[in-house]
Amino acid sequence: SVAPSEIVFTSCGSESINSAILSAASLDPDKTHIITSAVEHSATIKLCEHLARRGYEITSLPVDSSGQLEPERLAQALRPDTALVTLLWANNETGTLFPIEEISRLTNAKKVPLHIDAVQGVGKLPLNANELGAQFISLSGHKLHCPKGVGALHVNKRMRFTPWLRG
Fold first, then answer.
1. What are the tens digits of pLDDT across the range 11-43?
2. Three-state DSSP class for 141?
């Protein structure tokens, strides 16, 4: 279970994804490297492209012929200046599930925040935020039969969160 204070309501999954990535990117100005995969949702891809134009280095990990991300490649890509690893959990086009628990063990061992785009997995897969081990988990309400315009971001209570909308 998660505490109510760990949930940030947003307008959609894309806003949740953007909120997590921008929050992590703002934590340490010396950490300007973000790792993602080549098969992410456009909300992740487009924001990473935007951040690359602002001086961030983006490592986009390839997937194998079955659409799977190899954790060894992720381990090799982690660096001291990595601000965030941002990956989807379930791919809506291929059905591939990334090994999030293994990935979170790698990122937590290196003290690199992990953001999981769980929009396609929520409601279909058991979601236990504590077991996943991610610092951020993005959700979209329409996948749970909520009306459009409802999203959420789980922010682990041990993670500092900086909202990108102020006022």
1. 999 999 999 999 999 999 999 999 999 999 999
2. helix
Cβ contacts of residue 26 below 8 Å, gap of 6+?
162
pTM given for the model: 0.95
CB-based contact 12:152 (threshold 8 Å): no
Environment class of residue 19 by beta-carbon count within 10 Å: exposed (0-12), middle (13-18) or buried (19+)?
Answer: buried
> What DSSP line would sit under 84-105, residue for residue?
EEEEESB-TTT--B--HHHHHH
Give the position of tokens 């790792």: 35
Q: Tell me how many helices (H) and strands (E) the chain has.
A: 5, 7
The alpha carbon dihedral of 99, 129, 6, 16 has a sign of: positive
Stretches in the chain below the pLDDT threshold 70: none
| Separation of alpha carbons 114 and 108, rounded Å | 8
Spatial distance between the Cα atoms of 38 and 80, rounded to a whole number of angstroms: 22
